[in-house]
Amino acid sequence: MKRKFEADNDAAVVAAAANMTLDDEVTFQSLGLDARLLQGIAKLGFANPTLVQAKAIPLALEGKDILARAKTGSGKTAAYLLPLLQSVLKAKEASPNENATRAFILVPTKELAEQVQKMCEKLAAFCGKAVRVVNGAQNVSEQVQRSMLSENPDIIVATPAKALLHITLGGQALVEKVVHLVIDEADLVLSYGYEDDLQAIAKALPKGLQTFLMSATLTQEVETLKKLFCRNPVILRLQEGEDEDESGGVSQYVVKCAEDEKFLLMYVIFKLKLIKGKCIVFVGEIDRCYRLKLFLEQFGIRSCILNSELPVNSRLHIVEEFNKGVYDIIIATDEHEVVGDEEDEDIPKRALAMDNNDGGEPSKKNKKKKKARLDKEYGVSRGIDFQNVACVLNFDLPATSKSYTHRIGRTARAGKSGMAMSFVIPEALHGKHKPTCIPSTKNDEKVMARITAHQTKKGKVIKPYVFDMEQVESFRYRMEDALRSVTRTAIREARTREIRQEILASEKLKRHFEENPEDLKHLRHDGELRAAKIQPHLRHVPEYLMPKDGSAAITKGPEIGGAALRKSGENRIRKARERNKRVRKQTGKGRDPLKMFKGKTKK
Asked: Are 43 and 182 members of one domain?
């Protein structure tokens, strides 16, 4: 349904990608921003505006609607926050005693809402009490929500569902002064099921708002939102091609392997430190998270889990600690993937969907439980600001090529290099190893072919990554020992224990952590669950298992995670044995005395 405006038509000012170049003379000072905002920008260490900031901020300050498309990590958040803050500061100067909500920022996930609120507070750090920002996406009671809205905060950041609830509770008094609306990650908002909420919000908000639609793609969903909210928007296409290009600095590789070999390669990659830096491992099920975590635990490899079952506060803290470098490995599910616009209709959507149960066709009863348990507003592959990720490892492939692009967009950000590695199970090997088999991997080859075609259209190449399986096979018996310990019962107990621990830390101790922030620093999410039987001997890699030329001999491919492979010298024990053997041979020491005996025969 298209929203009606007095001067609404389909005309749009389009800034072509060819003209989108950054002028070296553009600075934050030259954009005409308030001095207090410039202080906040300087404190954050932003030297010069990015392309999207340099192009969008002047247009926003002129009052134009903007539909901006730029890749993840390009500075879209600051591009819309700075004009909003500038507008609020001007309004406060004109009416110092007036408290009114002037802007709504709609985001698809609670994690992104928290992230936007923190960025807004950092940019407004020198504005004192002139700007009040509220995160309306939190799970709080109706009384707390009324209290949050009672003083009419200047900016409300929320998911569409929460924003509609606030508008309902706050009534006309909350929205009558609203002049700005931002929809961040606009291409995801509708796919997360917020269509009805957005329709209701469009009817409740005043007409003639200045609207910002920020997105990494220009999809049909974005076109729908443009018709619903915008008036002749300036469209900024800040990159070439028709699809998103979040993988500019990503080296992409694919590894064909059997189902159990996925676990074998994970053991080898992390235990021998083939990846240097932080890594996000995407899996297809929540149970799969715990299977892999318990498996790595057997070898003393620490990791933390991120999925929609965990409380919001825990998820936010995990991401924050990961960005600080506290954790190196996150095992994540991505239940709300970007589905649609796929060319290959031979693969049923049901088969492509990532099943969050134990495998097989879920019953209606399980579906109901799943809806009650999982957080619909959770999302990992888009929206969350993971920093300095060296490698994205697709332990299980995503359902669609778009989801793949969004996943690998977590690495190679802000001009840095990164690597994406995907495990693919050939159809002939699917179902051969029952304990590690899941239904969604049956179509790996077809999905990978579609992903490859999608990347090829964008000029990207996915290369095969070759491991020397003869060298890797020497670690197989240790992998099998570890997998035998990770039973379904162990996974179920670990899942229950983890959720119980996180709920305790997230809810009951929330006030304690607010009063004692130092205690929060010691809260870790990568501790051992110990639901599986721990075998201490697996924590150490015997020297005799190591290749003669060190860990570099295991792989014939390039560096992993943008870092050189660990190169060690020859095996010290083998080298010492050979040296001793040569010494014994030369000196005669250590020889068998019976063989050394020389006797004379009687004539």
From this structure: yes
| Mean pLDDT on 320-325 | 84
Residues 189 and 300 both lie in one domain: no
| pTM (2 d.p.) | 0.62
- HEC profile of 550-578: CHHHHECCCCECCECCCCCCCCHHHHHHH
The string of DSSP codes covering 233-281 is: PEEEE-SSSSS----TTEEEEEEE--HHHHHHHHHHHHHTT-B-SEEEE
Beta-bridged to residue 237, according to DSSP, are 69
- pLDDT above 70 covers a percentage of the chain that reads 69
CATH of the domain at 399: 3.40.50.300
**162 shares a domain with 218:** yes
Query: Are 467 and 547 contained in the same domain?
Result: yes
Q: Is the pLDDT of residue 214 over 60?
A: yes
Residue range(s) defining the domain that contains residue 63: 13-237
Give me 427's structure tokens: 């159809």
Q: CA-to-CA distance for 211 and 309, rounded, in angstroms?
A: 33
Give domain status of residue 590, yes or no: no
Q: What is the pLDDT of residues 359-389, one digit of tens each?
A: 434 444 444 444 435 565 555 555 566 788 8
Residue 436 in contact with residue 276, Cβ under 8 Å?
Answer: no
Number of domains in the chain: 2
